[in-house]
Design a protein that fits this description.
Chain lengths: ~270, ~450
Amino acid sequence: MVVLAVIVLPWTFTLIMSLADWSPTGGTSWVGLANYRHLFTDPEFGWAVVRTFYFTAIGVIAPLALGLIAALCFHQRFPLRGAARTVFILPMMATPVAIALVWSMMFHPQLGVLNYLLTSIGLPPATWTYSETTVIPTLAMIETWQWTPLVMLILLGGLAALPGDPYEAARIDGANAWNCFRHITLPLLWPHIVVAAVLRTIDALKSFDIIYVITQGGPGTASETMNIYLYQQAFAYYHLGFASAVTLVFFVVIVAVTLVLLGLRQRSLAL
Amino acid sequence: MMHRRKLLAGSAATLGAPALVRRANAASSFDWQRYKGTHIEVNLTKNPRSDVLQKHQKEFEALTGISVGSEQIPEQQQRPKAAIEMASGSPSFDVIMVSLHVSKRLFGNAHWLQDVRGYIKNPEMTAPDWDFADFGAGAVKTATQADGRMDSVPLNPDLWVIFWNKALFKAKGLAFPASMDELVASAYKLTDKSKGIFGYVGRGLKNANIPCWTSWMLGQDAYTTNPEGTKLLTDTPEAIWGAEMYQKLMRDTAPPGSIGFNWYESQTSFSQGKVGMWLDGVGFSAPLIDPKSSKVVHDVGFAVVPKGPKAQHSASFVDSMAVTAASKKKGAAWYYVQWATSKKIMGEILRTGSGTPARLSVYSDPELVKTNRFGPEWLDTVKKSQAISAPGLPEIVPVTEFRDVFGVALTNTITGADPAKELRKATAAFQPILDKSNKKT
């Protein structure tokens, strides 16, 4: 009954709505698949998909790379390791909207602290979220800053669970640190990396709050990802039928990407 | 430490307050206590006017015996929440603050708000000193639907003005421009990028940037649609002229990154003393005279938008108060609207610098003129702008979509796109949306 109430019914209602032209004032008229046809012929939707994957690619790869490095560091013993780890995971605990507001102040081209720091070391000021070319990498940078700690925690757990025997055997055979990492750590850690990648991908694809608060999809439409596009259609333009179609397509995209990543994980476990 | 006698006197005053209110009611023929014991919910957008209403809410409750639950929601969340709740037929609120520049046609066509003309004419429902004739004609016109219904009462027209830095003008030996052409020329003269000084700042962010274009269009006495709201007039020579002016100012005389600026970034840039002029709503004046956030406290000037080739207008954006048509407590809700738009509350809004009220009498109240925290130049600018106010956005249902489509076109001009081409492209894209919307309603 709970599954029916919280999953089946909302999705069924969304599916029904996606077949209608429904607006708060204009009533409902059935339009069949017209919303889907419109969706796949709307260049703005196409660009929103491209931007979403661009943002997701940076928002997954960068935290994975940095999270792996951080996990390898925190796996070593050094003074104040516990305190350093606590500080490192702080961004993950902060509220996204609060983070977005603080970052948006730091990005201000004239008054932001980031440009102050750049110019104080002789570098030219950057336009950060105030340029069509740099806005997506900048937003992905915040995503990276916030979620690298999560990747680090997952991989740290993986590292702690690795057996010691292969390393001992490798050292007897004269393997150096890089060879140990390349041929033992990475393959054994791979299932954990895939788990982190799946979580990050789903999260990055769904990212809304930080983008909306900082840029609202701008400048122009340069940071209008699928989520922002969907929000605009549903809650700014009140195209609720069309927005339902976008929701379903978006859901299918997330499920497809997740299945691909889970398939990768299964393959890595089978190897 | 409080003396016992003072404490007793204070307690007596507090205990006696309801009696005083009752006596005041008795003196007036109007029965403010008619809906005593009723509870109403009020939905407000987050702004300083709402702060004033909430601060004085207890006075309303003491006056009427009506208890009030009120909440403030940021406008971008409040609008869809209100629309969806009202579409459901049973909104959770009886009174709503409406952004007429966005929601007028949507709410009006759906008949979600109560026509208040009957209440205004009924002496049993409206206090004799409420004085409807006191409201500015422009604001009343904006609050009136095309079919004559008045489904909200104007509270606050936000007027667009020019904030200018007198010190920068003086340093260049310039006077404040008398025309829009002179404004552009001054912006160029003030700009000295090597020193980080810019002649102008305004909104570049799509959607938010539309009034920075329509303000110039109004100088050509040109509007974005025909009066019926059925045909776009956004690719006319006048519209293109406005977009070219927008492009020149934003591309050549504004700080780097202003393509992504909303009012906040524009305000912070201007308040640092490196920008000559800023076009935006007068409601953003307060931080400019606050020494904690502004370096231009002694240099900021307030001016009416200068005249264009054919006309002089100040773009205005009106907030109003309304009773929801689905409310089961319409009488009590109307009492709240009446109180919220009274001379006393609007005077308080002006006195505290929380807005520029729709009532004309508050601007000539000697006490308010004397105690107004922004000074005589500000007050004079507001009064003159009120007199020449004109809608800064078209009165159509898909106004947000309009703002996005044309907002992107304007943003593209900042990166070098041809204004005429961009406007023609946006017009071709938006006219079918407008046609569809008009067909539906």
